Amino acid sequence: MVPNPYHQVILFGDSLIQHCTDNLDGFVFHSAVQAHCNRRLDVINRGFSGYNTSQCLRILQDVIPSTSCTKIDYFVNPTCPAIYFNNPKLISKLILLGSNDACLPGTTGQTVNLPQYKANLEAIISFPPLRAHNPTILLCTPPPIDEIHITELDLACGWESGTRTSENTATYAQVVRDIASAADEKVVLVDLFASLMENAISMTPDWKAEHGILGSVKSGMRGWLEKLLPDGLHMSGEAYKVFSKLVVEEIGREWRDEKKAGENYEPPSWVFPSYWKATWADPSH
Q1: Within 10 Å of residue 23's Cβ, how many Cβ atoms?
Q2: Which UniProt keywords are listed (predicted)?
């Protein structure tokens, strides 16, 4: 027996990925992506709060599913044979890292300088076991920060100054853009920084470009970032909605070519058939 496994989308990153399973303002990013992939792909959360790219690179070999065959002995019924199957194929991998790397030197201990950050990300997207799956790699820029609020919280916690700045985070986002533009066609840029900033600026009518980066201490204006980044760093449900639209657009583009035809339409990309086609068992028993 050779079962047909659900292949995978892996979400890989720091706390912004770890907490994307949380219900925030009535919205759950992970659920939104999984709903898009239902009956086609499993969406797997591999988020590690506090991690930077150096730490994530160290554990990458334990995150990527193997492409080799596995034997599972089935002991529930001794008369059943062992089951052989191919481990799930990695169809898409989303990578969101950089918010911790961009901490200022001498603060939290999470800092990874720009050259090393670039080298780490390039090593992650070119990791041979990852590339063996031939997945689409969604390479995400870190989101903007609300530096004003982060600095307030940092000072209240005893830091002499803020641990992050808007300008510094923006430079890390640009590194991601540069890597994606130089990579092959399997690497797709998801510009979360730009999308959230555009959303925030559109909802902050009194902001002007000459003020500086919205949310920076220099600009003196938080604007709509106050709603998108409640603690200055982590995203709200509204921000995750923006993120989910970007991600869903890039996963399963081929499904858009499946034409719906009638009430009993069955997408050919489903792993298992509709109940009325499941003829291998009598549903009344």
Answers
A1: 10
A2: Hydrolase
Query: Tell me: the pLDDT tens digits for 164-181?
Result: 999 999 999 999 999 999
For β-strands 187-190 and 136-140, DSSP reports them as parallel
Pick the CATH number of 7-142+167-192+235-254 from 3.90.1150.10, 3.40.50.1110, 3.40.1180.10, 3.40.50.150: 3.40.50.1110
pLDDT tens digit sequence for 202-227: 999 999 888 899 999 999 999 999 99
Contacts of 158 by beta carbon, 8 Å cutoff, 6+ apart: none
Pick from 231, 225, 228: nearest CA to 213: 225
The closest alpha carbon to 247, from 32, 65, 45, belongs to 32
> b vs e for 166-205, b when ≥16 Cβ sit within 10 Å of the residue's Cβ?
bebbbebbebbeebbeebeeebbbbbbbbbbbebbbeebe
From the list 90, 203, 186, 171, the residue with the least C-alpha distance to 136 is: 186
Q: Residue 95: name the closest of 37, 151, 138, 62 by CA.
A: 138
- Quote the pTM value: 0.90
How many CB atoms neighbour CB 3 within 10 A? 12
The pair of three-digit structure tokens given for residue 79, joined into one six-digit string: 């008369």
3-class SS of residue 207: coil
Domain ranges for the chain, please list them.
7-142+167-192+235-254
Closest to 3 measured CA to CA, from 109, 84, 121: 84
CA dihedral 180, 181, 182, 186 (to 10 degrees): 60
Tokens 């239902």 belong to 38
Which residues lie closer than 8 Å to 233 by C-beta, 6 or more apart? Answer: 99, 145, 146, 150, 164
Tell me if residue 38 falls in helix, strand or coil.
coil
